[in-house]
Write a structure and sequence with these properties.
Layout: H1 2-33, E1 37-38, E2 49-53, H2 66-80, E3 86-90, H3 100-110, E4 118-121, H4 127-136, E5 142-148, H5 149-161, E6 165-171, H6 176-198
Parallel strand pairs: 1-6, 2-3, 2-5, 3-4, 5-6
Protein backbone atom coordinates (compact mmCIF):
# COMPACT_ATOMS: atom_id res chain seq x y z
CA UNK A 1 0.00 0.00 0.00
CA UNK A 2 2.79 2.41 0.88
CA UNK A 3 4.50 1.86 -2.46
CA UNK A 4 1.34 2.65 -4.42
CA UNK A 5 0.98 5.90 -2.51
CA UNK A 6 4.64 6.77 -2.82
CA UNK A 7 4.74 6.68 -6.62
CA UNK A 8 2.12 9.42 -7.18
CA UNK A 9 3.78 11.51 -4.49
CA UNK A 10 7.16 11.13 -6.17
CA UNK A 11 5.70 12.07 -9.55
CA UNK A 12 4.03 15.16 -8.10
CA UNK A 13 7.20 16.15 -6.27
CA UNK A 14 9.28 15.73 -9.44
CA UNK A 15 6.82 17.80 -11.46
CA UNK A 16 6.80 20.59 -8.88
CA UNK A 17 10.59 20.67 -8.73
CA UNK A 18 10.80 20.73 -12.53
CA UNK A 19 8.38 23.65 -12.72
CA UNK A 20 10.26 25.53 -10.02
CA UNK A 21 13.56 25.01 -11.80
CA UNK A 22 12.04 26.13 -15.10
CA UNK A 23 10.79 29.27 -13.37
CA UNK A 24 14.24 29.88 -11.93
CA UNK A 25 15.77 29.49 -15.40
CA UNK A 26 13.42 32.08 -16.90
CA UNK A 27 14.18 34.49 -14.05
CA UNK A 28 17.93 33.95 -14.41
CA UNK A 29 17.84 34.71 -18.13
CA UNK A 30 15.71 37.82 -17.57
CA UNK A 31 18.04 39.09 -14.85
CA UNK A 32 21.23 38.65 -16.88
CA UNK A 33 19.77 40.17 -20.06
CA UNK A 34 17.91 43.08 -18.47
CA UNK A 35 18.91 46.36 -20.12
CA UNK A 36 21.19 44.64 -22.64
CA UNK A 37 18.72 44.07 -25.50
CA UNK A 38 18.18 46.92 -27.95
CA UNK A 39 15.45 47.40 -30.51
CA UNK A 40 16.49 50.91 -31.59
CA UNK A 41 19.57 51.00 -33.79
CA UNK A 42 20.19 54.63 -32.83
CA UNK A 43 20.54 53.70 -29.15
CA UNK A 44 22.75 50.68 -29.81
CA UNK A 45 26.42 51.16 -28.80
CA UNK A 46 29.08 50.49 -31.43
CA UNK A 47 30.94 47.19 -31.29
CA UNK A 48 33.64 45.85 -33.58
CA UNK A 49 32.06 42.43 -34.07
CA UNK A 50 28.46 41.32 -34.41
CA UNK A 51 27.59 37.67 -33.79
CA UNK A 52 24.79 36.59 -36.14
CA UNK A 53 23.13 33.47 -34.76
CA UNK A 54 22.15 30.99 -37.42
CA UNK A 55 18.84 29.47 -38.35
CA UNK A 56 17.60 27.69 -41.43
CA UNK A 57 16.96 29.80 -44.51
CA UNK A 58 13.81 27.81 -45.26
CA UNK A 59 10.91 26.37 -43.29
CA UNK A 60 10.02 22.68 -43.37
CA UNK A 61 7.55 23.42 -46.18
CA UNK A 62 10.33 24.95 -48.26
CA UNK A 63 9.19 28.56 -48.00
CA UNK A 64 11.59 31.36 -46.93
CA UNK A 65 12.04 31.53 -43.17
CA UNK A 66 10.93 34.87 -41.68
CA UNK A 67 13.37 34.33 -38.79
CA UNK A 68 16.31 34.02 -41.19
CA UNK A 69 15.28 36.98 -43.33
CA UNK A 70 14.78 39.23 -40.28
CA UNK A 71 18.20 38.37 -38.87
CA UNK A 72 19.91 39.08 -42.18
CA UNK A 73 18.17 42.46 -42.41
CA UNK A 74 19.18 43.33 -38.86
CA UNK A 75 22.84 42.31 -39.25
CA UNK A 76 23.27 44.03 -42.61
CA UNK A 77 21.65 47.22 -41.26
CA UNK A 78 24.06 47.24 -38.33
CA UNK A 79 26.98 46.93 -40.72
CA UNK A 80 25.78 49.64 -43.10
CA UNK A 81 25.08 52.00 -40.21
CA UNK A 82 28.58 51.47 -38.81
CA UNK A 83 27.37 49.82 -35.62
CA UNK A 84 29.54 46.76 -36.28
CA UNK A 85 32.55 46.29 -38.56
CA UNK A 86 32.59 42.50 -38.87
CA UNK A 87 29.80 39.92 -38.88
CA UNK A 88 30.60 36.53 -37.36
CA UNK A 89 28.02 34.25 -39.00
CA UNK A 90 27.75 31.21 -36.76
CA UNK A 91 25.52 28.25 -37.44
CA UNK A 92 25.03 24.58 -38.04
CA UNK A 93 26.98 22.75 -40.72
CA UNK A 94 25.32 19.38 -40.29
CA UNK A 95 25.97 18.14 -43.81
CA UNK A 96 26.86 19.40 -47.28
CA UNK A 97 23.25 20.18 -48.22
CA UNK A 98 22.57 22.10 -45.00
CA UNK A 99 25.03 24.86 -44.25
CA UNK A 100 23.75 27.84 -42.28
CA UNK A 101 26.96 29.94 -42.35
CA UNK A 102 27.18 29.74 -46.15
CA UNK A 103 23.47 30.59 -46.47
CA UNK A 104 23.99 33.59 -44.20
CA UNK A 105 27.10 34.74 -46.06
CA UNK A 106 25.32 34.66 -49.40
CA UNK A 107 22.30 36.51 -48.02
CA UNK A 108 24.53 39.13 -46.39
CA UNK A 109 26.40 39.65 -49.65
CA UNK A 110 23.10 40.16 -51.45
CA UNK A 111 22.31 42.78 -48.81
CA UNK A 112 25.51 44.64 -49.70
CA UNK A 113 27.85 43.41 -46.96
CA UNK A 114 31.35 42.83 -48.42
CA UNK A 115 32.75 39.33 -48.24
CA UNK A 116 35.83 40.41 -46.27
CA UNK A 117 33.55 41.71 -43.50
CA UNK A 118 31.98 38.27 -42.97
CA UNK A 119 33.60 35.55 -40.88
CA UNK A 120 31.99 32.11 -41.01
CA UNK A 121 31.87 29.77 -38.02
CA UNK A 122 30.76 26.33 -39.12
CA UNK A 123 30.66 24.82 -35.63
CA UNK A 124 27.80 26.86 -34.18
CA UNK A 125 25.64 23.78 -33.66
CA UNK A 126 23.85 25.32 -30.68
CA UNK A 127 23.54 28.77 -29.18
CA UNK A 128 26.01 27.71 -26.48
CA UNK A 129 28.54 26.67 -29.15
CA UNK A 130 28.15 29.89 -31.15
CA UNK A 131 28.55 32.25 -28.20
CA UNK A 132 31.25 30.29 -26.39
CA UNK A 133 33.32 29.89 -29.57
CA UNK A 134 33.14 33.64 -30.19
CA UNK A 135 35.30 33.98 -27.08
CA UNK A 136 37.25 30.71 -26.98
CA UNK A 137 38.12 30.50 -30.69
CA UNK A 138 37.62 33.97 -32.14
CA UNK A 139 38.98 35.89 -29.15
CA UNK A 140 36.04 38.25 -28.64
CA UNK A 141 35.36 39.79 -25.24
CA UNK A 142 32.79 42.28 -26.56
CA UNK A 143 29.95 41.43 -28.92
CA UNK A 144 26.68 42.59 -30.38
CA UNK A 145 24.54 39.47 -30.75
CA UNK A 146 21.87 39.50 -33.47
CA UNK A 147 18.73 37.37 -33.27
CA UNK A 148 15.06 37.66 -32.32
CA UNK A 149 14.37 39.05 -28.87
CA UNK A 150 13.12 35.74 -27.45
CA UNK A 151 16.45 34.13 -28.38
CA UNK A 152 18.74 36.93 -27.25
CA UNK A 153 18.11 36.41 -23.55
CA UNK A 154 19.51 32.88 -23.67
CA UNK A 155 22.46 33.97 -25.81
CA UNK A 156 23.29 36.75 -23.36
CA UNK A 157 23.16 34.24 -20.50
CA UNK A 158 25.83 32.16 -22.25
CA UNK A 159 27.88 35.28 -22.96
CA UNK A 160 27.69 36.29 -19.29
CA UNK A 161 28.88 32.82 -18.27
CA UNK A 162 31.92 33.15 -20.56
CA UNK A 163 32.71 36.69 -19.34
CA UNK A 164 31.79 38.31 -22.65
CA UNK A 165 30.55 41.89 -22.49
CA UNK A 166 27.64 41.31 -24.86
CA UNK A 167 24.60 43.27 -25.92
CA UNK A 168 21.79 42.11 -28.15
CA UNK A 169 20.11 43.69 -31.16
CA UNK A 170 16.61 42.35 -31.71
CA UNK A 171 15.67 41.42 -35.26
CA UNK A 172 12.06 41.88 -36.31
CA UNK A 173 9.75 39.53 -34.40
CA UNK A 174 7.77 36.79 -36.13
CA UNK A 175 4.12 36.61 -35.21
CA UNK A 176 1.39 34.06 -35.71
CA UNK A 177 1.64 30.35 -35.04
CA UNK A 178 5.33 30.17 -35.96
CA UNK A 179 6.22 32.84 -33.42
CA UNK A 180 4.13 31.24 -30.68
CA UNK A 181 5.57 27.78 -31.30
CA UNK A 182 9.15 29.03 -31.14
CA UNK A 183 8.44 31.07 -27.99
CA UNK A 184 7.07 27.98 -26.22
CA UNK A 185 10.12 25.98 -27.29
CA UNK A 186 12.34 28.74 -25.92
CA UNK A 187 10.96 28.18 -22.41
CA UNK A 188 12.37 24.65 -22.49
CA UNK A 189 15.58 25.83 -24.19
CA UNK A 190 16.24 28.33 -21.39
CA UNK A 191 15.83 25.60 -18.79
CA UNK A 192 18.26 23.35 -20.64
CA UNK A 193 20.72 26.24 -21.03
CA UNK A 194 20.83 26.80 -17.27
CA UNK A 195 21.40 23.07 -16.76
CA UNK A 196 24.18 23.06 -19.37
CA UNK A 197 25.99 26.04 -17.88
CA UNK A 198 25.56 25.59 -14.14
CA UNK A 199 24.94 21.87 -13.60
CA UNK A 200 26.55 19.86 -16.40
CA UNK A 201 29.28 22.37 -17.38
CA UNK A 202 28.65 21.55 -21.03
CA UNK A 203 31.39 22.69 -23.42
CA UNK A 204 31.20 23.49 -27.14
CA UNK A 205 31.41 20.42 -29.34
CA UNK A 206 34.49 21.78 -31.11
CA UNK A 207 36.99 24.46 -30.16
CA UNK A 208 40.35 24.04 -31.88
CA UNK A 209 43.14 26.57 -32.18
CA UNK A 210 42.37 30.27 -31.53
CA UNK A 211 41.71 32.32 -34.67
CA UNK A 212 41.26 35.93 -33.55
CA UNK A 213 39.18 38.30 -35.63
CA UNK A 214 40.77 41.63 -36.53
CA UNK A 215 39.08 44.89 -35.66
CA UNK A 216 37.84 47.37 -38.25
CA UNK A 217 40.41 48.06 -40.94
CA UNK A 218 42.58 45.06 -40.02
CA UNK A 219 42.74 41.70 -41.81
CA UNK A 220 39.89 39.31 -41.08
CA UNK A 221 40.69 35.64 -40.61
CA UNK A 222 38.16 33.02 -41.68
CA UNK A 223 37.56 29.55 -40.34
CA UNK A 224 35.91 26.78 -42.34
CA UNK A 225 35.07 23.34 -41.00
CA UNK A 226 34.58 21.85 -44.50
CA UNK A 227 34.80 23.02 -48.07
CA UNK A 228 31.71 25.15 -48.55
CA UNK A 229 31.35 23.93 -52.13
Amino acid sequence: MRSTRFVPFLLKYTLVMALLFAGFAQARVDTVSRGRIYESIDELPDRSVGLLLGTSQFTRSGSPSPFFDARIRAASELYHRGKIGVILASGDNAHVSYNEPVQMRRALERAGVPTDAIVKDFAGFRTLDSVARAQLVFGQTELTIVSQRFHLGRALLVAHHYSIDAIGYAADPVGGYAGLRVWLREVLARTLAVLDLYVFATQPRYTGDPVPIGVRGEPILDVEAIDEN
